[in-house]
Please model this.
Amino acid sequence: MRDTLAFGVQQDERPCLERAFAQRRLGVRCLDVFMNGDTAPLAAGHEIISVSVNADLDADVLRTLDRGGTRMIAQRATGFNNIALDTAAELGMTVARVSYYSPFSVAEFAWSLAMAAGRRVVRAARRTREFDFRLDGLMGRDMHGRTAGIVGTGKIGEAFTRIAHGFGMRLLGWDIAENPACAELGMRYVELPRLLAEADLISLHVPLLPDTHHLIDGGALRSMKDDALLINTSRGGLIDTEALVEELRRGRFSGVGLDVYEAESGLFFLDKSLDVIQDDTLARLMTFNNVLVTSHQAYYTADAVGQIVETTAGNVADYLAGRTGADVLTAPGLPPAARR
Model:
């Protein structure tokens, strides 16, 4: 069957996805369940599937898909740490991603977390709904004149930097390569330990790779200022969450804003309000008044989702036409060195 079977489609996303495929005269069926070992058999008979950022495409899942006849996977996300690409290549599967969408969606949301955590907005909103208008415990601080440390200065990091520049902040950056646009704004590139030690606000914008897994570990957390703000809208695995909980128990950090969590698969995007949460680390994290957790929604704007589904439909159209576009991660005949 050449209609695309799309997994993990959000209610708001569905009409956008259906419209993008219809404009290319392509068929698509949408499911709200996420791709994992339990749901992979649902793809049997479908040559093309599309998955969301929280899909689990490990080697076993890919082999199940292969036995069911799936030959192409179109991921509706930029990151691909959730896909066993080597296995996909061995099976001769084509895997494509969305290599670009609005960086402003994530950067602006990172700032939303920073301001909400730093200015105690959530706590204040809860109080005022109960007609408690005291200011005790709500004191924040100005961003102007303080130091922003941007870890990763690609497109999203650059957009975050421009906002920080607008606040009048001192800019420190860390990346494997300098971004001239950030340097023009006055950013000074330094080693990561110095950035972590000097920054009042630290925002993470690097991909999750073997080298960046737990980039912010216990030692990195201990090197930060006691009143620092830590924001992560990239990938949960960048932070050692158990180490973060230990530092929070010591009363450290002015605020922490997390839109991602390293064990979010099977939790985020789902209604777990009636369940007993078995993840003790996440449950403990939620108890801290200075921690704000959201459910991987930084990308979720009409602008960004529109670009994501348009690119996804284009990737499927390319596959059907026998084209290997720039978003392809692996495909039959694509040499390993060419994989992005």
Notes: The chain is about 35% helix and 15% strand. The chain has two domains: 4-101+301-338, 103-293. The first strand starts at residue 4 and ends at 6. The CA atoms of residues 125 and 132 lie 10 Å apart.
